[in-house]
Amino acid sequence: MRYDIIVEVKEKSCEATTKVYDDNEVLVSQGVIEIGTTDAVVARQYTEDIFLPDLRKNFPEISALVLPIDSMPEPTPEEGGQ
């Protein structure tokens, strides 16, 4: 699976369109979110770190999607973890 994120900067926000494709390049999920920032980098990061994991959790057909956040180590208590 793979995904594409297209960020469009609007006057007071950004709109991020996310498309998820299976291994055969068939579109299996698409979502659009409006993010309260005009910074395209921040909007993309939010989409990748918050929106896509939430989408993946709620839609089993994209549960195999691997995201960059999946390879981040868990924070230790010294770093602010629980």
Q: What is the compact description of this entry?
A:
It is built from one helix and three strands; from the N terminus they run E-E-E-H. It has one helix spanning 40-58; strands at residues 2-9, 14-21, 27-35. The longest helix has 19 residues, at 40-58.
The structure class reads alpha+beta
- Gap from first CA to last CA: 32 Å
Question: Mean pLDDT, as a whole number?
Answer: 90
Coarse morphology: flat
What is the rounded Rg? 14 Å
Main β-sheet: number of strands, strand sense, barrel status? 3 strands, antiparallel
Low-confidence sequence ranges: none
Strand order of the largest sheet: 1-2-3
Helical segment count: 1
Outline the fold blueprint:
Elements: E1 2-9, E2 14-21, E3 27-35, H1 40-58
Antiparallel strand pairs: 1-2, 2-3
Describe what this molecule looks like in 3D:
It is built from 1 helix and 3 strands. Strands 1-2-3 form a 3-stranded antiparallel sheet, covered by helices on one side. The mean pLDDT is 90. The termini are far apart. It is flat and about 40 Å long. A hairpin with a 4-residue loop joins strand 1 and strand 2 (14-21). It is an alpha+beta fold.
Task: Offer a few descriptive terms.
1 helix, three-stranded antiparallel sheet, flat, 82 residues, alpha+beta
